[in-house]
Fold this sequence. Notes:
Blueprint: E1 2-5, E2 17-23, E3 26-30, E4 41-43, E5 46-47, H1 52-66, E6 71-74, E7 80-83, H2 86-98, H3 101-107, E8 108-114, E9 122-129, E10 135-142, H4 144-148, E11 151-156, E12 159-162, H5 165-180, E13 184-192, E14 209-218, H6 225-234, E15 238-242, H7 247-257, E16 267-268, H8 269-278, H9 280-289, E17 292-294, H10 298-310, E18 315-319, H11 325-330, E19 333-337, H12 343-348, E20 351-353, H13 358-398, H14 400-403, H15 420-438, H16 462-486, H17 498-519, H18 535-553, H19 555-561, H20 568-578, H21 580-595
Helix pairs in contact: 1-2, 5-7, 6-13, 8-9, 9-10, 13-15, 13-16, 13-17, 15-17, 15-18, 16-17, 16-20, 16-21, 17-18, 17-20, 17-21, 18-19
Amino acid sequence: TVIATDKTGTLTRAEMTIVRVVTASGTSDVTGAGYEPAGQVQQAGAALPPGPQHAENVAVLSGGSLAGNAAWRQAAGGEWEIQGDPTEAAFLVAEHKLGSADRRAKRFTRLAEIPFTSDRKMMSTIEADHEHGDAPVVITKGAPGVLLARCTQVRVGTATLALDDATRQRILADVDGLANDALRTLAVAYRPLAAGEEPKAHAGLEQALIYIGTVGIIDPPRPEVAVAIAEAHAAGLRVIMITGDHPRTALRIAIDLGIVSADAAALTGVELDALAQQGEPAFAQAVRKTSVFARVAPRHKLQIVRALQAGGDVVAMTGDGVNDAPALKAADIGIAMGVTGTEVTKEAARMILADDNFSTIVAAVREGRGVLDNIRKFLRYLLSSNLGEVLTVFLGVAAADFIGLKGGTSGGELVLPLLATQILWINLITDAGPALAMGVDPIADDMMVRAPRPRGTRMIDARMWAGIAGTGIVMALLTLFTVDLLLPGGMVEGHESLALARSAGFTVLVLAQLFNCFNARSETRSAFVGLFANRWLWASVVLSASLQVAVIHVPFLNRAFGTAPLSAHQWLLCLAMASGVLWCGELRKWVLRITA
């Protein structure tokens, strides 16, 4: 009932591209998209000229490249590819467009690293600056709000100035502007280490930093995802987005994709923690009303899953990182990313998404519903047909006097309406081919507008049992009535032999089950809707009917199965009687549709 999904790579293409750089001297635009190196850093539509803003851009993009571990290269086939985090790779591509990558590679050598964590929301490297006598410098990349709180100065051109409150507020306003444009934001800062400071990795180095600038990164939504989300909503599935991005960025993407309406709000990890302190009811209520969660940690994913499950939802959760494993394991369906997912995540999940694409999840839901629907068709058909056979024999024995199966040609002894070989034949030609053909019945057009089945729903519910019983009874009555029509001594006085009457009843039961193939394809939809959609079903019906004609008219089969040839008039009678199963089924479906 709920699909909780990451944003990056699942709803989007995971081809992070820096499109804007905001520094003290102004805003620069970066052209090009994806990992192709084509493009340039521009100001007012022209290449960014040398000057303070150019120097700031070099510092931002070089700093972002240094504070990361991604690699970017051209493959043998000519296409450009990355290794590592797509966001980190975006700095490498943008830096190449600015033309500063070679200088950065020669100027710095890494000494140590302070890795990124979802709690810290930043990472740092300590580099030896060869242009300044190998002096160590700490370079930090992270969420603007978090990073700015650790900055005391700002870089303007090649100089540094004190970071006053007015400048701080202007920077935060710039960040909000980027987020409002659905851009993911990352800030870059640095600090030369003071004399005596050890260039070793510890969080104490990430203080008194010099702010350089913020980049706006776009991760374009996958074009097919909006359609998939609309299909999920039509199917009664709620889609929620859980991301580490800025709330405004997350909301903008969610609105564009149709996850939420324009007036929706997002909940952040900090707000979730505050709600958790208020108690489980407040937390659960907020989770049920919210479809966008931003700036969250993996532990929040686990809390969200449990809150949804407590409310009766069946939850599918996506994840790719090691820290996502607990949430995936707790979810009813944990979905690991096949491309970017770690081995730990894949082991914890119940499903692996081979292409990391959200639309594949919705396609899997559709396919799964189709499989379940076909299983129910299979059971509806087999159980009703077998019940028809059982009731034919049982009622034939119980009502033998009424239908002429005692006395007359049988010499007063009890005679079964069907022989054992005939019952075996019915099971062979109607249970095998047509039943198997139902397993490949096309998915119904209305499959993804049906509401999800409630948790704990039985495979065969009361309504389906009623339909099975009704169909079985109708089959048996039609078969026995046909026998009675042709047999002397029954309610309707006939004049044919027992073999002929039994052959007619045998044929009616076979044909009734073949009509039941089309009846069983849906519990409420008319059999004439999509009548020719399943060619395999038609092939099996034609084959089964042909074999029945053979067993009635081929002499050596007459002896083996105790049958006698039927006239054209008798065949028409059998067809008319057998079709009663279809018409009774149509009447029942019509009643169900108008009373739904």
